[in-house]
Specification:
The chain has 92 residues and is mainly beta. It has a domain at 11-70. Helices cover 11% and strands 37% of the residues. A hairpin with a 2-residue loop joins strand 2 (24-32) and strand 3 (35-38).
């Protein structure tokens, strides 16, 4: 049985889009197995400074700032996919 390193399949990506009004929207995404979802636990996942727009997402689920901040405060340590002790092992 071949072990799959899940760390290789997960990537953080940053995209920018020019809106019709000329402003720039920046999106932070987590890509896993070719599927991208808006995601950031450290800052808003979708930002447009000119439109004063900030949206908070974790794994593609939109949260209010208050709920997102509570989730952020409640986490401990690194997520499993960033933990160096898990490199080279498969999640069961």
């Amino acid at each position: 049985m071949k072990k799959i390193n899940t760390n290789e399949n997960i990537k953080n990506k940053k995209f920018s889009k020019k809106e019709e009004d000329g402003s720039i929207t920046t999106m932070l995404c987590l890509e896993a197995n070719g599927i991208s979802k808006l995601h950031s636990i450290d800052e808003p996942a979708l930002v447009n400074k000119d439109q004063k727009k900030k949206e908070y997402y974790i794994n593609g689920i939109k949260y209010s700032y208050e709920n997102w901040n509570e989730i952020k405060k409640g986490r401990e340590g690194l997520p499993w996919y960033k933990n160096p002790s898990h490199k080279g092992t498969a999640r069961h």
